[in-house]
């Protein structure tokens, strides 16, 4: 689940607020969710940048992953400041 950590305060007129509230009610969502969706529609994520990042991840050399017990021990050592 996404954690929101920024607050945005805007002033809008009654007509716009009414449209947002009606959409929220008819879709069983909060006003904030409707506004976030509208932002995503109006200002989509830079898909080319995401494609490049995904291509880099997929092209990366495989990294060996140990057994669960080994990983647990390594994490514990990192947390204890031993690594």
Which descriptors apply to this entry?
single chain, 83 residues, mainly alpha, 4 helices
Account of the protein in words:
The chain is an all-alpha fold and 83 residues long. The chain has one domain. Helix content is 60%, strand content 0%. It contains 4 helices and no strands. Helix 1 packs across helix 2. The protein is elongated, with a radius of gyration of 22 Å.
Largest sheet: none
Radius of gyration over alpha carbons? 22 Å
Q: Stretches where pLDDT falls below 50 for ≥5 residues?
A: none
Number of domains: 1
Report the average pLDDT across residues.
91
Order of helices and strands: HHHH
> How many angstroms does the end-to-end distance come to?
31 Å
Protein structure class: mainly alpha
Tell me the β content: under 5%
Shape, principal axes of CA atoms: elongated
Number of helices: 4
- Helix amount: 55-70%
Number of strand elements: 0
Topology:
Blueprint: H1 14-26, H2 31-42, H3 47-59, H4 68-79
Helix pairs in contact: 1-2
Offer a concise description of the structure.
The chain is an all-alpha fold and 83 residues long. It has one domain. It is built from 4 helices and no strands.
